[in-house]
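SAMPLE LOG
Freezer: B-3
Tube label: C17
Construct: single chain, 265 aa
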Amino acid sequence: MIPIQPGTVSGHYSLTVEKSLCVGPPDRLFMFGGVGLASALAAVEAFTGRPTVWAAAQYLSYARPGTRLDLEVIVPVAGKYNSQARIVTKAGDQEIITVNAALGSRPDSPHQQWAEMPAVPPPQDCPVMPMRWSRDPDDLNSLFEQRVAHGNFGAARGTAPPSTDGIARLWLRPTNPDQVIDRLLLAVMADFLPSGVGNALGMNAGGNSLDNTIRFARLVPTRWVLADIRIHATAQGFAHGRVHLFAEDGTLLGTASQSMILRVF
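STRUCTURE (predicted):
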């Protein structure tokens, strides 16, 4: 899904922004923020040979369809079990995204989980997620099936009262049945967090991500992922929230948080 290519210089990779990696109104498409984070993780994991533990992206500018991006991987620290890295993504001389990350795996460590998956109906019993605007049929949304497990996403059309708890829950799965749900795909799914803003406010609203911090837990095979979204607050033109990502069996796959520029449409 993230077609990065190795560059001619060590530590450099490239990505051409295709329409299928973008969202937004058909005449103003831009690369989905989660794709920017996932492409950086693809580059740093390829370069270090280690899995991502934690990563934080700062979004600085937009990349439009057809843009060719250069991703530079810098690894200041590489220890026995973990590495600390930075990935800078540019379009020409313009910096688009900067990602800081920690990578590695420590053998023989215990696995335990305290976060609990909420009780929700199975995906087949949940309605399809409504879109808040007309979209390009080939944009990133076409790569995912989205079903509403909790929350009134009718708020996207101004038809719901504000949420009392700021919680919205979505079942997500790739439309390609052969697509494996890995860390890269989870980084993309985590960026569905802004879709909970409209539900929280009870109006046609969303957000443009300023950042995206993701922490990976234990990965297990799953076809669907439950995005348990909580919008914590909106203030001074910004929104803040988090999302837990659960496998169908209740395993916590990862957790992410964001601050967004609040957009009321």
